UniProtKB/TrEMBL annotation, chain A:
Keywords: Activator, Nucleus, rRNA processing, Transcription, Transcription regulation. The keyword Transcription regulation applies. One of its GO terms (biological process) is maturation of SSU-rRNA. This is Nucleolar protein 11. Residues 398-622 form the Nucleolar protein 11 C-terminal domain. It comes from Hucho hucho (huchen).
Automatic annotation (TrEMBL), chain B:
Gene3D superfamilies: YVTN repeat-like/Quinoprotein amine dehydrogenase (2.130.10.10). GO terms for biological process: maturation of SSU-rRNA from tricistronic rRNA transcript (SSU-rRNA, 5.8S rRNA, LSU-rRNA). One of its GO terms (molecular function) is RNA binding. InterPro entries: UTP4, WD40/YVTN_repeat-like_dom_sf, WD40_repeat_dom_sf, WD40_rpt. GO terms for cellular component: 90S preribosome; small-subunit processome; t-UTP complex. This is UTP4 small subunit processome component. It comes from the Eukaryota.
């Protein structure tokens, strides 16, 4: 899941005369992660401390001069660099009060942007496509600058990326309705030109966003029709390609645009699965309002949305978990969080990493397809294509008939009190073709009949037991066994291993009374101590819960009942035991961390020259 | 000089033993030091801390404590015996069973008339020091539990004794215990363990200072038997204490390897009342500091990590000088390796055994400027190892190998043995009786023993070299010119012509011009002198950190000359070089040197014993440095 948190205003904005222009040229990072360098569209650069919403310094060029590129920070020298009137490069330091008195140099061609990234030297991109490292340019400002782009070609967007000691400048251009991507590699300098595929409408892309992931540069671009495409350029790609390649693209997201087209929208990639989009209406809100939304591109789902008051101006920036959105009369900073989304988290916590994955592909049937003949969507498809069709058919038939059989047996048992077939039901469960959603009454029936063996089997083998049922089992187990004994030990072990989601489990856990909670906590502590003592003998069999599962349950239980436990005198000893135990564990882990650190240092140490016990060497004396 | 082939040998597993006890004689400025293997070493602190005498150990001897009485040295140990040493002949003079079980400590009174020992059976025994002997006098009141440490009050009337969990003060004339000072145990888990009072010091004002196994240094009032002050200085043991001569400072050595100084000063400015205040901590050891001595200008310490540290107290020095530098003495100031130059054999001397090794054959092709041309040991069929297990208990004093490799000799305090070696294919050893033909070899061994006198005896007293004020640390007789080259502990260098019975011209020239300051400032003595058989002008000598080839045909360096000039010469062209050459060609490529010798085939043998290899064989220290502390 992803979430947008409560934002705050970093600064007010003065609307520009031309409504389509953003009042902010750029926001860049400083050496400090809490600083932001904001360049407005006219004459001033302001340095903000983001968490304090407070300006730390502001620099303005003279009346009549104009900043033509956002200020950037040179991370190596801690200086700021900006360009005024296209040709004058200005460099100043934090402590300089007046930008006019700082260093400036006039270059011989118009500058498009200065780019800087941590770990790389700033680079200057000229409007005609040439690229220079800032230092080498400033050493000879009047050096001739070549034209890289053809006559009518203009730069639309640019960025730079530092990847594994490689420095890249990416920029897109437009020429006669065609769009190109240039990838300029520095040291050694190579330039690769790609043609972007033409969108049917012929409209130009609204925004670009580039990010580095797994040694590939991912370029994400949004078209007015709501399509978000992604193209991938390899960092260590073959550089010998000649001529203009067509850049392959894949559709990541189709935003519901409604009628009409997007105006000044912008999309920025947050991680491999999430995209933040501004300037488009919320699908379920009335039109005319601008929203900031986070979309999951894997599942094509809207994960979070926030209404932005006033009109959104063009681009949006994203740094270190915060989105910078200029809208209306303010620049807002909105923290966000994207959790890794996976099928596993959608289904619940993994039972056993590794084992469960392979098993669940068989055991989790796609009921939609069985019952309604629907085609599974999305990731399920990928799983299916791997298997042979014949096997699929057999497995589905078996699952269907086992399910029906179980349902019939359970229905009859419910109808006739005397009729209960534990053996047959257990056999059916053991086929592993059954799951809770096929026959929801099975587990409850077993519970009713106090058939704990069957309960345990179900807990172990069903991947989809709802949290409420898990809790009901737990309650019954604890109620029927007032002391810690081996039987309870086994039963609760089954509960601990069921898949669950914290959010759904928590309310049901709250139903336990204090006595039950203390008993269960005692049990958990006992199991934990047992396992932490003989961690090596623990086999990854089905019957023993893992340490992580035990700790998760401990945490959940404490979360749910903390106030009650604090008040309960019986729990005092237990809580203090747990506390001291946690303390010792934290200490252990911090020590382990230190050891890891020092071992890494050992790795870094230069290996001393190995001198054997005996050698014949030659020295020279003068 | 050109290229030299070097046999770099690192397989001599020399392992010094831990320092157990020391005693400083302020009158003669000699430090006596006892090691775990029972050997005793005498260092001359007036002569550049030179190790002038070594009395080899013995398997059955163990020394727990040393004590000077005037110029006489006594030791006592867990074998229950008191021994006196013959410092002329470097052997125990006599030893005496004390009949009190293992002895933990021996001390003498300031008058030097009595010795007191602390025994396992709980007695303090007094011995009278006679002219040539000592004689049992009486016991003080016997206590329950062993007597670990003793200290005599300067007036001679009282003795403080450190025991288990307590300190006793004895009245010497009556022999009765007059005070009982109870020492607290450690806190926590060590509460059940008895506290061992490892060391006590009795000061003139009747203050008793104690160091114990609970990590405390405590100050007591000896009159009243009350505790004045407790300093908890370590989690482990305080093993040794030493008081400065003026009793204004006490140092304590701990198991952590630290030495902690306490001074008797007023804790606040302009106040009259003085008390014992912990002032400084020195950390020059990694392991137990078992032995300590606070001398006039320095703190001397030693322990499990085997090296002797002389830590100068810088406030006692007005300017930076030779004496104000920290000294660490790692290796003995004598040779443990001898080399048969013709045969290419090496003899390593251990306390109880000798090892004979054959050097590998080189392929004879000059390998150009490859500083690290290495080959595996196996490839060079280098090793043929023979062990002479020293039979009997006495450890080996010295050993030698004749240059042809045919004769081998070694001596203990009681005997000299000579063997005939045949090393062609199979090594065979035959013991031979000394005969006139071999007198040369045995004399060599004797010469080593005579070096401590400041003069040198050559052959059947052929002549006596003029006496010089510093001990010779190494010497050698040139095989062709019969010139005797001597290097002294103060780094002075002389060449004496045995034929003409006078110093050679070169030696006079050297003395007239003076040695270079860089040479004089080195802090380890030269321990070996050898010659180039092919070039009579060349003398090879080495200390722990460098070897030097002196070419007497070249000009001597004056004070303005760059002394270590090999790097400079390397960068100069062939034509420029001759004008920059001087007589001392020094190479510091090899470190921790035990032997450097020049073979007949003009290749060098360098025996290194890296200090790291010694450290790695020590037991784990009690306190290990934690990351980021």
């Amino acid at each position: 899941m992803a979430a947008l948190y409560e934002g705050f205003t970093l600064c007010g904005l003065v609307p520009t005369q031309n409504a389509s222009d953003s009042p902010i040229q750029g926001i860049e990072l400083d050496g400090d992660s809490d600083h932001a360098v904001v360049t407005d569209s006219t004459r001033s650069v302001t340095l903000y401390k983001v968490s304090d919403q407070k300006p730390l310094g502001s620099w303005t060029v003279k009346q009549g001069q104009l900043l033509t590129c956002p200020a950037v920070c040179n991370f190596q020298t801690k200086e700021y660099v900006v360009v005024s009137d296209n040709k004058v490069i200005r460099v100043w330091k934090d402590e300089d009060l007046n930008i006019d008195k700082a260093f400036k140099a006039t270059v011989s061609a118009d500058v498009w942007r200065v780019h800087s990234a941590p770990g790389g030297e700033p680079v200057v991109l000229f409007q005609r496509g040439a690229v220079r490292l800032l230092d080498s340019l400033l050493s000879a400002p009047q050096q001739p600058i070549e034209d890289v782009l053809s006559e009518e070609e203009v730069i639309r967007w640019s960025t730079n990326i530092v990847a594994e000691k490689q420095h890249f400048v990416l920029f897109t251009t437009e020429q006669k309705g065609e769009h190109f991507l240039y990838v300029q590699r520095l040291n050694p300098n190579t330039l690769q030109k790609y043609r972007l595929e033409r969108e049917d409408s012929g409209a130009p892309p609204l925004s670009f966003s580039a990010s580095l992931r797994d040694k590939h540069i991912n370029l994400l671009y949004l078209y007015p029709n709501g399509c978000v495409y992604q193209s991938v350029v390899a960092v260590r790609g073959p550089v010998e390609l000649e001529g203009v390649q067509t850049l392959p693209r894949s559709l990541r997201l189709r935003l519901p645009v409604g009628e009409g087209k997007l105006g000044a929208a912008s999309a920025v990639a947050l991680d491999e699965a999430h995209v933040a989009v501004v300037g488009m209406p919320h699908p379920s809100a009335r039109t005319g309002k601008d929203f900031l939304c986070i979309w999951n591109t894997n599942f094509q789902t809207l994960q979070a949305g926030k209404e932005m008051v006033g009109r959104i101006h063009g681009p949006v920036w994203c740094y270190l978990g915060k989105l910078f959105v200029p809208h209306g009369k303010a620049l807002s900073v909105i923290p966000y969080e994207c959790q890794k989304s996976s099928l596993a988290s959608a289904l619940g916590k993994l039972r056993h990493a590794g084992i469960a994955v392979s098993k669940s592909s068989v055991a989790v049937p796609s009921w939609n397809s069985l019952l309604h003949g629907d085609q599974p969507q999305g990731p399920a498809k990928i799983v299916d294509t791997r298997k042979s069709n014949g096997f699929i058919g057999d497995a589905q038939d078996l699952q269907l008939s086992v399910g029906q059989l179980a349902c019939h047996l359970v229905a009859r048992s419910q109808a006739e009190t005397a009729f209960y077939t534990p053996g047959a039901l257990a056999q059916l469960v053991q086929t592993q073709c059954l799951c809770h959603s096929v026959c929801p009454d099975l587990l409850l029936l077993a519970l009713e009949h106090k058939d704990y063996f069957l309960c345990q089997l179900c807990l172990q083998l069903f991947p989809d037991i709802p949290e409420v049922v898990t809790c009901a089992c737990l309650k019954t187990f604890i109620r029927s066994h007032q002391s810690i004994e081996m039987r309870l030990f086994n039963l609760c072990g089954g509960v601990l291993q069921t898949a669950y989601s914290d959010n759904f489990l928590l309310p049901h856990l709250k139903d336990l009374n204090a006595q039950q909670v203390i008993l269960f906590l005692q049990y958990l502590q006992f199991v934990y101590l047992k396992f932490s003592q003989d961690v090596y003998t623990q086999t990854p069999g089905l019957r023993s819960p893992t340490m992580t599962q035990i700790i998760d349950w401990l945490c959940l239980l404490l979360d749910a009942h903390f106030t009650v436990l604090v008040m309960a005198p019986d729990a005092k000893g237990l809580l203090s035991n747990l506390e001291s135990f946690v303390k010792s564990q934290v200490k252990l882990f911090s020590e382990l961390g230190k050891i890891e650190g020092s071992l890494q240092e050992l790795h870094k140490m230069k290996l001393s020259k190995d001198i054997s016990q005996y050698s014949i060497e030659v020295i020279e004396l003068f | 000089m050109g290229e030299l082939k070097v046999h770099r040998v690192r397989f001599f597993d020399y392992m010094p033993t831990a320092i157990r006890a020391m005693a400083f004689n302020a009158h003669t400025e000699r430090l006596a030091l006892a090691r775990m293997d029972g050997s005793v070493e005498i260092f001359n602190f007036t002569d550049h801390y030179f190790q002038e005498k070594v009395i080899p150990g013995k398997d059955s001897r163990s020394i727990e404590s040393l004590c000077w009485v005037g110029g006489r040295l006594f030791s006592a140990g867990l074998n229950g015996e008191i021994a006196e040493y013959d410092l002329e002949n470097l052997r125990p003079k006599y030893s005496l069973e004390a009949y009190g079980g293992p002895i933990w400590t021996v001390i003498s009174n300031t008058q030097g008339t009595q010795l007191a020992i602390g025994c396992e059976d709980g007695t303090v025994k007094l011995f009278e020091v006679l002219e040539e002997h000592i004689q049992f006098e009486r016991n003080l009141d016997r206590q329950k539990g062993r007597i670990i440490s003793l200290s005599w009050h300067p007036s001679g009337t009282h003795i403080a004794a450190g025991m288990m969990d307590m300190i006793r003060v004895f009245d010497v004339p009556t022999g009765h215990a007059v005070q009982r000072l109870l020492v607290d145990r450690g806190i926590g888990g060590s509460k059940s363990r008895e506290t061992v009072v490892w060391s006590v010091a009795f000061l003139s004002d009747h203050t008793v200072v104690s160091g114990d196994s609970a990590g405390k240094v405590q100050v007591w009032d000896g009159h009243t038997g009350t505790l004045v002050k407790t300093h908890l200085v370590t989690k482990w043991d305080v093993l040794a204490l030493s008081v400065s001569k003026d009793e204004s400072s006490v140092v304590a050595g701990t198991s952590e390897g630290t030495v902690i100084q306490f001074q008797f000063i007023a804790p606040t400015l302009h106040q009259q009342d003085k008390e014992w205040v912990r002032t400084r901590t020195f950390k020059n050891h990694t392991h137990d500091v078992r032995a300590l001595a606070e001398i006039e200008t320095a703190i001397v310490s030693g322990g499990m990590d085997t090296h002797l540290v002389v830590r100068p107290l810088l406030e006692k020095f007005d300017e930076k000088s030779h004496a104000s530098g920290l000294r660490k003495i790692h290796f003995p100031h004598r040779n443990l390796v001898s080399c048969a130059k013709k045969a290419g054999l090496l003899l390593f001397q251990f306390p109880g055994q000798l090892e004979l090794w054959r050097l590998g054959d080189s392929d004879g092709h000059g390998e150009k400027h490859t500083l690290s041309k290495k080959r595996e040991m196996e490839e060079i069929q280098s090793i043929s190892l023979t062990l002479f297990k020293q039979k009997g208990e006495d450890h080996i004093c010295c050993s030698a190998l004749s240059s042809c490799g045919g004769w081998l000799a070694y001596s203990t305090v009681s005997s000299v043995r000579i063997y005939r070696l045949q090393t062609d294919n199979n090594i065979s050893i035959t013991k031979v009786l000394p005969n006139p033909e071999l007198a040369m070899t045995t004399k060599c061994i004797h010469i080593l023993r005579y070096t401590s006198h400041g003069s040198v005896l050559v052959f059947q007293l052929h002549c006596i070299v003029p006496v010089y004020g510093s001990c010779p640390s190494a010497m050698g007789i040139h095989p062709t010119t019969n010139n005797l080259t001597m290097v002294h502990a103060d780094q002075q260098l002389f060449e004496y012509s045995i034929v003409e019975k006078q110093y050679t011209d070169w030696s006079r020239k050297l003395q007239k011009q003076g040695l270079h300051n860089v040479w004089l400032d080195r802090d380890t003595p030269v321990t070996h002198v050898t010659f180039n058989p092919k070039n009579p002008n060349q003398v090879v000598l080495h200390d722990m950190h460098m070897f030097c080839i002196i070419d007497q045909s070249l000009p001597l360096p004056d004070q303005k000359t760059q002394f270590y000039n090999q790097m400079t010469l390397r960068s100069l062209s062939e034509q420029e070089r001759p004008s920059h050459l001087h007589a001392f060609k020094i190479c510091k490529t090899f470190q921790d040197l035990l032997c450097v010798s020049l073979l007949d085939d003009q290749s060098l043998v360098v025996v290194e014993r890296p200090l790291l290899a010694i450290t790695s064989q020590l037991p784990a220290p009690v306190r290990q440095k934690k990351f980021a502390t």
